[in-house]
């Protein structure tokens, strides 16, 4: 919390009456600082792969010009760096979209089970290549939420991709859907979707900052695995837009559980 607030006074004399209006600029200053930090972060994130690309281009032009083996290896790395930049730009655009959208977007009635079945089906190949068994446990009856299908699909895709990326060593990733007439987090009817892995987990010191843009619990591993550091920021935004809540529980060595709690349609 901010202990000191900046207040700028604007005074004017209008026909003998003194008009003073105070504008609280604390939020504006903070917003300005956040924007500057964000631009600095984005520039840094883009510059890293760009520098690598430029280095490889130079090497290919010079010392590696006639070395076919080196050329193939370098091109492979260059492709990986280019696709990292592509992912970053894609995530930035997604984040921008969800941030700038108003809540008035038309909402559809969505069956969570169907949505999760299709999302997990599209991630099956990834799960298979990571050697992970992906399971879905949902109530037999439909669980209807009011929401944006594309955005909610993105939420569960991001959480599942993380579980498969960081939690693959656990061998199993579970999606568990449950409902409550009165969810304590919402004080109303809610549906919970938990994505749980049994991998390396996250040191609890990181948990409060995990949804910040570009925050990574394990910087080296995230970059190695092609992470952009924006996935959970996008998740958090979309969940907020749906008047939902996001919970994270984890301990080192104990895997991680991310829970999305969404309001459920009342009949
Ligand atoms: P990234 O693109 O780096 O994966 P995210 O915003 O999706 O960015 O996640 C932020 C960080 O949270 C990751 O860098 C990783 O350190 C940590 N993290 C997210 N999900 C998991 C998980 N299931 N297990 C362990 N660490 C995780």
UniProtKB/TrEMBL annotation:
Reaction catalysed by this enzyme: ATP + protein L-histidine = ADP + protein N-phospho-L-histidine
- State if Phosphoprotein is listed as a keyword: yes
Q: Which UniProt keywords apply?
A: Kinase, Phosphoprotein, Transferase, Two-component regulatory system
Residue span, Histidine kinase domain: 41-266
Please list the GO terms describing molecular function.
kinase activity
Q: EC number(s)?
A: 2.7.13.3
**Name of protein:** histidine kinase
**Protein source organism:** Lutimaribacter marinistellae
Whole-protein coverage range: 85 to 351 of 351
